[in-house]
Design goal:
Length: about 150
């Protein structure tokens, strides 16, 4: 099965710019962007909510980049970097698609902003809603404890 935009030539910088332009078009403001070799984050404010997407970057040391898929032979450092960069571009394109689809679903009245972005809405303590309830959700489904919906 192929991945969305796996052969894209659109650079990560262009995807980030497209994401910001899309967010502005749908009324978001107060943008932030951070990146490291292992993670990137895009934050913005929309509908009175602070939202942050965390994008895990592929590990450059992964065999998917250091070795060829067919013969499993070691790639040159330049080839490994190029393969890693391609995977990075693919992830940025996928994030651009996800954000655009969520915003269009809200604009079309299919859903509401909070439902589409709930997992990525930041809480006052600095964690997202998704991070906050993930462990509780696992516990609720294994029957070890009930999910607390109200404090």
């Amino acid at each position: 099965m192929s991945r969305y935009a796996e052969n894209t030539t659109v650079g990560s910088d262009r995807s980030r710019s497209e994401i910001e332009a899309t967010l502005r078009r749908y009324g978001a403001d107060q943008f932030a962007y951070m990146t490291s070799r292992t993670e990137a984050r895009i934050g913005f404010v929309a509908h009175g909510r602070q939202v942050q997407f965390r994008l895990q970057m592929p590990d450059p040391a992964d065999r998917a980049f250091t070795h060829t898929p067919e013969r499993k032979t070691r790639r040159s450092p330049q080839q490994a970097e190029a393969a890693w960069e391609q995977a990075t571009r693919q992830r940025w394109r996928a994030l651009a698609l996800v954000i655009k689809a969520k915003l269009e679903a809200v604009e079309a009245g299919i859903t509401v902003f909070e439902d589409e972005f709930l997992a990525h809405i930041m809480l006052p303590g600095g964690r997202s809603v998704g991070e906050t309830i993930r462990d509780q959700l696992d516990d609720a489904y294994t029957g070890t404890r009930l999910l607390e919906l109200m404090p």
